[in-house]
Each structure stands twice: as C-alpha cells, then as structure tokens.
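Risk register update: the risk of archive-format incompatibility is retired. Evidence:
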Amino acid sequence: QPPAVDPGALAALQGMGSYLRSLKTFQVEVATTDEDVLDDGQKIQYSGTTSILARMPNGLRAEVANDRRERMYLYDGKSFTLFAKRLNFYAIVPAPPTVGQLADTLDEQYDVTVPIVDLFRWGTPGWSTDAVKGAMDVGPGTVEGVTCQQYAFRQDDIDWQIWIQKGDHPLPRRLVITTKTDEGRPQHTAEYTWNLAPSFNDAAFVFDPPEGAGKVVLAKAAAAAAGK
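Archived output:
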C-alpha cells in the first residue's frame, strides 16, 4: 500500500512557499544538528548555527559556524564571495542577478551549496511537490513557544517533517530530515528564529577582507571543468 497523500498537507507547504517568496527582506538564525553514522552503527552529532540576512532578489549574507568549519557567504547582485574564516582565505567569482540563480550556479559550477538553500527554493516556479510520495498533517505543536502545525512527508530517499507557524506568517520553524539511503538513518534538524524587519545597509553584502587574508581561486566542480 503506498502512503496516503493529504492534499491539505501539500497545500500548507505551497502556502508556506508562497509566503516566503513574498518576503522582500528577512533575517533568520538557524540552529542545526547533523548526524554521522560510523561503520559500527554508532551515531555522532555535530551542532552548528547559520545566520542569514536576505534582501530579495539580489542580496545575501550568510555566516555558518559549526564544529567543523566557519564560512561566510556574501552576494551583492554582481559578485559572490566565499570566506573561510579559520583559514583566512577568500574567493570571489562573478554572479548572476538573483539569489535563486546564484544557488543554481554555485551548485552546478562550483559544487557549493547556499546555506539553508530551501528557503530560497520553496515556492519558486521550478519547485514542485512531485517527489512527495506521502504527506500527512500530524497536528498542532509548538517550537520555542510559537504555535505551529506539524506535517510529515515521505520521498524515495528521505522522510521529513516540518513545523509551520500558524496565522498570517506561515514560516517554517523546525525541519527534520531523515536519510533513508543510509541504514543508520542519520537526521538533520534545523530550528529557525525569524526577524522580518531587519536593519541593514548595502555594506552588509560587500566583503571587506580582514588583514592578512589570502585570495584564492574558487575551484570549478569536476563536471563543470570537464564541460569546458
């Protein structure tokens, strides 16, 4: 028996995506937890934070800090900068005119993923729920005191849950993804804290190299380099 697909759950997802696409500026702090599964089956967790400031459609500042790395991503509508803080090296490449196009270019050309990239893809013209094989409304819940509705979805390779804020601002508040292709079923968890009226200026998206920082070339992805 295939899992049931609740149209209401899909509609909630579509509504969240449409609302995200209506936002012109936002700031979001994301607390993440990721799991690695060792050869003997033991799980190891890694925690991190991601801070995002977005000016749609052509401004992005993202800072990622976790147990493994610290990275800054800056985009001003014309160029993209990736800065490795601990190593004190940075790379700059020309960029397309929108955040959505930037995410695709970085993925295809450089094998680089924009942090929390789903925030910029949910609700876009190219996004769909076709991959969803099962969808259900789990019921009400709260995330950090915010009243939400919890939904669960199934796809071929992953199961995932999302908590969407109730009311006029249907924002994602928590996301849990379980990878089914690994028998250890590792999980990725993200909790979002939103600011829909951030204060900033254009300088927030411009990179100012710190003293002693070295400039390097951002390597092309193997497939992109082979296609030259």
